[in-house]
Amino acid sequence: xxxxxxxxAVFGGRxxxxxxxxxxxxxxxxxxxxxGPREADQIWTRHLLNGVSITGLIEPASVVLDIGSGAGLPGxxxxxxxxxxxxxxxxxxxxxxxxxxxxxxxxxxxxxxVRARATPxxxxxxxxxxxxxEVPLADVVTARAVAPVAELARWAKPxxxxxxxxxxxxxxxxxxxxxxxxxxxxxxxxxxxxxxxVSTSVDSGPxxxxxxxxxxxxxxxxxxxxx
Length: 227
Ligand SMILES: C[S@@+](CC[C@H](N)C(=O)[O-])C[C@H]1O[C@@H](n2cnc3c(N)ncnc32)[C@H](O)[C@@H]1O
What we know:
Elements: H1 5-11, H2 15-31, H3 43-52, E1 63-67, H4 75-81, E2 86-91, H5 94-107, E3 112-119, E4 122-125, E5 138-144, H6 149-156, E6 160-170, H7 174-188, E7 190-199, E8 212-220
Parallel strand pairs: 1-2, 1-5, 2-3, 5-6
Antiparallel strand pairs: 3-4, 6-8, 7-8
Helix pairs in contact: 2-4, 3-4, 6-7
The site of S-adenosylmethionine has 16 residues, from β2 and β3.
């Protein structure tokens, strides 16, 4: 499937790599049941570009830990667009971990893949996790379509450095979800929780429509930047 004009602007010289990732999603991603069959038509907008739309919220050279990467979203889309990031993919399901290892080997993407379950007590490593060493504290934890935001915050807390940021990519119900869970987030020590509608920060000109994503963003500890 031909990438939309936005993809060329977002991925630049790495568009071919992004196209090869799209082929993985449309091929093994679909046949192995990691994505639903109805996702094929929306692979660029709903998946690759949606995943990468948070790129403007992530500082250069950040350690990014993606909880529940599944077929590699948003993590691998981000790493393709932002090779400066140090990416850790956390996924408990063995078939998904195998798929992620195959994709990263084929596309030569330097992501660290950890077979583990995120819990309030930290990562619980599962059998056949090939990475024995410690996972660094993250500057940013990402998650898309994994769990309610209060649960994500419980899981992200032990994984984030102080002042680190949780970015939960959500759908239209993000505002209601934040309203419901705000007190829990505050109790957990998060601050500045807000709903952001973001798009890829490219100089696209007026003719290229941009994909947007709705994100619940918050920071762990430290001093509030809210006025
Ligand atoms: C619906 S899929 C979403 C996958 C991907 N983030 C996406 O947006 O396409 C949810 C993923 O979260 C993973 N997951 C569920 N609970 C988890 C946990 N406690 N820690 C890490 N991953 C988890 C599942 O194995 C699954 O791959």
